[in-house]
Design a protein that fits this description.
Helix content is about 30%, strand content about 15%. The chain has 9 helices and 11 strands. The protein binds zinc ion. The site of zinc ion has 6 residues, from loops.
């Protein structure tokens, strides 16, 4: 069973959470502040000569979802996909911490079938584990904070997760990283991955007054610490690439973005306190004339993978805007479906097809 049955509707249909979250960050954040201007005009640029990534992010939260992915990989390759970001979070048969397995965890043997098939079809696999935020969805709290409630940034608060968007773990609790790093190692090894996506999007509970360690601290320092701790393990210790969503690193008040796809809590200042060889998946799901964060991330030296969802004109606008930057650090495009894959359907996801067409990928 999916842990997040409504997650495909996230960021578009969230009436329950919107009011609570707005209360956290203030209504002023919802409007574009004076001086927000596109950093570069939107334009349809010619395709660059460099090879571009066409990625797809999928949720694999059950054995059934994994089997659907296995069936669909040949069709995805035929549609031009050469990267899969596979998000399983706790839904893997972790051996180091079996107490943290989700309800229907994927076996190592199944992951090996995915690895073999992806290799056969020349698709890069990057597993994802949501770090820091997204430790709950609706009324359900995920295994780390149910098994180790002392790691919660707001321990004992918000029963039933009422009044919050998602729980976070505490970036200063000394017990978190040793356990989480064990899980990340198992994903890296299971997927034989050369990169790992650590999520870190939509973190609203940070520097909480309810946390004895974080109260009063700078959200940017705390967010940067969480990023740098993960980097120290994934990149420095394991020699892999680290990927993450970009929204908490975007200065919301200076750009015409909303509260979900950018930061109004100050975490964005962490962008100058983290290594620049992290791959930033810069997601924007609504049509805009410009997406200034793409330029900001590139100017700072990051590699950027702009990411779209189901709004086809928005996906095309983001891609066209991104293609205007003639640098190898603009990697291509990542599509998301925010649900598990379905055999016979996912490779025909309209936004994916539109991006593939724009990138000149020939349908099989
Ligand atoms: Zn804390």
């Amino acid at each position: 069973m999916s842990q997040r049955t409504n997650r495909d509707n996230r960021r578009f249909n969230r009436p329950r959470w919107r009011a609570a979250t707005v209360a956290f960050i203030g209504t002023a954040a919802l409007v574009c502040q004076a001086g927000c201007r596109p950093s570069k005009p939107a334009a349809v640029a010619p395709l660059p000569a460099r090879p571009l990534v066409l990625g797809l992010h999928v949720l694999i939260e059950s054995k059934g979802a994994a089997e659907e992915l296995i069936k669909e990989i040949p069709a995805l390759a035929g549609a031009g996909v050469n990267l899969l970001v596979v998000e399983s979070d706790y839904n893997y048969e972790y051996e180091s911490h079996p107490e943290l397995r989700g309800e229907d965890p994927i076996s190592k043997a199944t992951v090996k079938r995915i690895v073999a098939l992806a290799r056969e079809y020349k698709i890069r696999l990057v597993p994802e584990f949501q770090a820091l935020g997204h430790q709950s969805w609706a009324g359900k709290t995920f295994p780390l904070l149910t098994r180790y409630p002392e790691f919660d940034e707001t321990p004992g608060k918000f029963p039933g997760n009422e009044g919050i968007y998602c729980r976070s773990w505490c970036p200063l609790h000394p017990g978190v990283n040793p356990i989480v790093f064990d899980l990340l190692d198992e994903l890296i090894d299971g997927y034989e991955a050369d990169g790992l996506h650590v999520g870190m999007d939509e973190v609203f509970l940070i520097a909480s007054d309810y946390c004895p360690r974080c109260k009063g601290k700078d959200p940017a320092d705390l967010f940067a610490k969480a990023v740098n701790d993960l980097y120290g393990h994934i990149v420095t210790a394991r020699g892999k690439e680290m990927w993450m969503w970009g929204d908490r690193l975007i200065e919301g008040p200076a750009m015409s973005y909303g509260v979900w796809e950018s930061s109004y809590s100050g975490t964005w200042r962490a962008v100058d306190r983290i290594p620049k060889d992290i791959v930033i998946c810069d997601w924007h799901y609504e049509p805009m004339k410009a997406y200034p964060s793409v330029k900001v991330f590139l100017d700072k030296g990051f590699r950027v993978l702009p990411t779209s969802f189901r709004n086809v004109p928005a996906a095309e606008a983001l891609l066209d805007y991104s293609l205007g930057f003639d640098t190898n650090r603009m990697l291509g495009h990542l599509c998301t479906i925010w649900r598990g894959p379905k055999a016979g359907e996912t490779s025909n996801f309209p936004a994916l097809r539109a991006i593939a067409r724009r990138l000149g990928r020939k349908p099989a």
